[in-house]
Amino acid sequence: MGLKVKITIISLSLIQFIPINFIGAEPISPSAEIGDILYRSDGGQWGPGHAMLFVGHYANNSQKRIVESIPPSGYPVQYNSSISHDIVKTSAEEVLDNVKRRAICDFAISKIGVWVYSSADEMLLGEWKGQSGKCVCHGLTEAAYESVGLNPIPGVDWWTYPVDQCNSSNLADASVLLPSGSVNSPTANTIVRGEISLEDDAVKDWNTGSGIYKVNFYCDETLVGTDQHVCNTESDYDVTWNTTNSMDGQHTIYTCVHDRGGNEKETDTVTIYIDNTKPTVTNTKP
Q1: What is the DSSP letter of 118?
Q2: How many C-beta atoms surround the C-beta of residue 170 within 10 A?
Q3: Residue 266 — pLDDT band, cuts 50, 70, 90?
Q4: Across all residues in the chain, what is the average pLDDT?
Q5: Domain boundaries in the chain?
Q6: Of residues 3, 155, 7, 169, the one with CA closest to residue 88
Q7: Rounded to the nearest 10 degrees, what angle do helices 98-110 and 137-146 cross at?
């Protein structure tokens, strides 16, 4: 099995971005990293477009993906897990490490139900980036970045922000860093029986990634166990597997590593042999 990736490039003036499609609650790779600003080009419904923050699996509810502030006026900042339009990742990847990513998510999550969307009149009065507890979509994203000392779009006016965001040279179309791992136990060509431990002690998601969310363990193409715990850069993952649930003979085992951004990567397979058949003794004497 391999990771199938479909990439489409959309040219947006000065820079190119990778679209991200959301179907239901599950993003299709390539995905975003947590803390990324996502931009949706809009068909005129909300003017120049819509900006939001990607929080992925960072939130307690694994199905919550987006934090956004949307019209109409007075509507509170909310989670959203289903986006029907193409979304474009636009984050200052070169200056975002996993510590800042988590802090951006914490800021955005803390505003859910607290900040409300600004009306047009309120925006004209400057209440668009958290003033008096009111913000517009891009006000939320910029305030979250400013909370960690970053300004993704310096010196632009609120009414052009989403368009300027897409065309700004201050944003990067950085590639997503897929998490990685490697099955280390059992080793290749080992004969196993009964209950054994499957271990992947090389799971990592780099310094600028989203952090690991879980690791699934497979025998052939059957899921045999999941170790779900969060680590920011590197950790060991393991499960107990009862080999009697599989037929004797040759099998391949591998893991699939998932990060908190929804990105995933399968490891190389390791061949093992299951032998749970008890020996038999035949008396040949008359």
Answers
A1: P
A2: 14
A3: very high
A4: 77
A5: 10-167, 183-274
A6: 7
A7: 130
Only one residue has tokens 């477009």, namely 49
Q: Taking the model in full, what pTM does it have?
A: 0.75
Query: What type of residue sits at position 36?
Result: D
Give the helix/strand (H/E) hosting 165. helix 161-167
| Burial class of residue 167, CB neighbours in 10 A (0-12, 13-18, 19+) | middle
Q: What is the pLDDT of residues 109-143, one digit of tens each?
A: 999 999 999 887 887 788 888 988 999 888 898 89
Q: What is the DSSP string of 9-42?
A: -EEETTEEE-EE-EETTEEPSS---TT-EEEE--
Q: Map residue 103 onto helix, strand or coil.
A: helix
Residue with tokens 């006000």: 139
- CATH code: domain 183-274 is 2.60.40.10
Q: Are 251 and 220 in contact (CB under 8 A)?
A: yes
CB 35 within 8 A of CB 53: yes
Q: Dump pLDDT digits (tens) for 44-102.
A: 555 667 888 888 888 766 667 889 998 888 899 998 876 555 566 666 555 678 888 89
Q: What's the CATH code, domain 10-167?
A: 3.90.1720
Q: Helices then strands (H, E): number in the chain?
A: 4, 21
Helix ranges restricted to H, the chain: 98-110, 120-124, 137-146, 161-167
Residues 6+ positions from 259 with CB-CB distance below 8 Å: 33, 56, 57, 178, 179, 205, 209, 210, 211, 212, 213
Residue located via tokens 């779009």:
153
